[in-house]
Amino acid sequence: MAGAVRVVVGLDGSPESLAALERAVREAARREAVLVAVSTWGAPAQRSRPGAERSARRRVDESFGRLLGGYPAGLVIRPAVVRGRLAPALVAAAGPGDLIVVGDGDGRLVRLLHASPAAYCRDRARCPVLAIRPDRRVHGPAPARVPAA
């Protein structure tokens, strides 16, 4: 395993972050890279709620469990639980030569109210950023059935 290159993925429990995790696992295996799974809790200026850090760590475990049934064998995974917002934590965790994989939702309201984490990373990261949208056939609502004629 090379170890010099890392794939950094952000996990917040959303369908977008699960899609990003799926791609990040493939990229880390392909590149023989360490996978850094980042989850965040609380904003630095806010008072933290009890158990917030523990919940963020559990989110990492649950994301791997939901997507893959657990942590994949043969891949070095380094969970990183960080206080703060996800996008700045991803940028801080990744260096030149690494790859950030981040979920990119398509909700217009969310983009109006908050900057997209993918856009934040693309604007500020010192490495390539891969923004992943979830496959609606897998993560979205079931397709409507058309009655037989």
Automatic annotation (TrEMBL):
Entry-linked Pfam families: Usp (PF00582)
InterPro entries: Rossmann-like_a/b/a_fold, Universal_stress_UspA, UspA
Domain of life of the organism encoding this protein: Bacteria
Alphabetical list of SUPFAM superfamilies matching this protein: Adenine nucleotide alpha hydrolases-like (SSF52402)
Start and end residues of each UspA domain: 6-133
Similarity comment: family membership: Belongs to the universal stress protein A family.
Protein name in the entry: UspA domain-containing protein
Provenance organism: Kitasatospora arboriphila
Organism taxonomic ancestry: Bacteria, Bacillati, Actinomycetota, Actinomycetes, Kitasatosporales
